[in-house]
Amino acid sequence: MVIHLLKKQLRNILEQNDPDTAVFEANQLLQWATGLDRSALMLETEIDDTAAEKAVNAARRRVKGEPLQYIVGEWEFFRLPFKVGEGVLIPRPETETLVELALERLPENGVLVDLCSGSGCIPIAAAKNSNVLCYGVEISEAATAYFKENISLNGVQNTVFPMQGDVLEPTEELFSALPEKCDIITANPPYLTAEEMENLQREVRHEPDTALFGGRDGLDFYRVIFGKWKKLLKSGGSFIVEIGEEQSQDVQAFMEREGFSCEIFKDLNGAKRVAVGKLL
Ligand SMILES: C[S@@+](CC[C@H](N)C(=O)[O-])C[C@H]1O[C@@H](n2cnc3c(N)ncnc32)[C@H](O)[C@@H]1O
């Protein structure tokens, strides 16, 4: 099929979803369906019918609300590739702020423990950009499978170690599989409220509830994790968590109650997004 006609057909379909993103998404789907990158595609005038059909079917799925990231199966975070699909949260750009704050605080040859790891984007990005050892704890089997795949994809088998476990009820067995002490604990836990869960964007409804819902007021994880996990932190170590825009005061209070000093940082959009607790 002639490529410019296919592009037009894809754009027409995708505009039903969002005219502002139709061109970008048409290009993404074309690259995925053909296996060609952007510059290689520009040199082509025709693409074979199988790839064209694959791209058109994908555009139709997209218009029904399936996230683009799940359709193409891979997404970038911190300039690294991550496999994603049903059962795992798509890494968000806001979370890069948390990774940057962790990298600034990690000592040479340090140890980082990440709670609620999902795709593994936080520990994998930290390991790729420093010389630390990273451990990640995740409850969902489906998400852990992606986490392991992403460790191989990014070649960090010797520095990132995935564990399956419940961070709200950590067992002695889980603690004994982790280092006795670490320099940094990171977490991007589920933090949406019951009300926010009622009003989710169509795409976000495809993502697992276990990755999103943080209890009626969204704060269930923050109420528990600082107390249950601080024994793992070295004195002076940092607990770094992503938060919802309206949660900074509550999270600060939870941290201070557990003996941390707390500082709040904004993401690139100016939203209060990360709380950094230093163990006093
Ligand atoms: C908001 S997502 C964050 C995923 C990933 N860290 C990221 O930033 O993209 C929260 C993750 O916590 C996991 N989770 C939910 N409850 C948990 C629990 N009790 N213990 C461990 N992980 C849990 C979910 O399966 C999900 O992968």
Structure description:
With 280 residues, the chain is an alpha/beta fold. It has 2 domains: 3-64; 86-279, 3-Layer(aba) Sandwich (Rossmann fold), CATH 3.40.50.150. It is 42% helix and 20% strand. The protein has 13 helices and 9 strands. It has helices at residues 3-15, 22-34, 38-43, 49-63, 68-72, 95-105, 121-128, 141-153, 172-176, 194-198, 209-212, 220-229, 248-257, and strands at 74-77, 80-83, 111-115, 133-138, 160-164, 182-187, 233-242, 260-266, 272-279. It has a 7-stranded mixed sheet, with helices on both faces. A two-stranded antiparallel sheet has the order 1-2. Strand 3 (111-115), helix 7 and strand 4 form a beta-alpha-beta unit. The longest helix is centred in the first third of the chain and has 15 residues, at 49-63. The model has no long low-confidence stretch (mean pLDDT 96). Bound molecules: S-adenosylmethionine. Residues 89, 91, 95, 116-119, 121-122, 137-140, 143, 166-168, 188-190, 210-211 line the site of S-adenosylmethionine.
How would you state the average pLDDT, rounded? 96
**DSSP, total strands:** 9
Major sheet description: 7 strands, mixed
Structural class: alpha/beta
**End-to-end distance, in Å?**
65 Å
CATH architectural type of the largest domain: 3-Layer(aba) Sandwich
Oligomer: single chain
CATH class label of the largest domain: Alpha Beta
The fold-level CATH name of the largest domain is: Rossmann fold
Blueprint (SSEs and pairs):
Blueprint: H1 3-15, H2 22-34, H3 38-43, H4 49-63, H5 68-72, E1 74-77, E2 80-83, H6 95-105, E3 111-115, H7 121-128, E4 133-138, H8 141-153, E5 160-164, H9 172-176, E6 182-187, H10 194-198, H11 209-212, H12 220-229, E7 233-242, H13 248-257, E8 260-266, E9 272-279
Parallel strand pairs: 3-4, 3-6, 4-5, 6-7
Antiparallel strand pairs: 1-2, 7-9, 8-9
Helix pairs in contact: 1-2, 1-4, 2-4, 6-7
Bound molecules: S-adenosylmethionine (SAM).
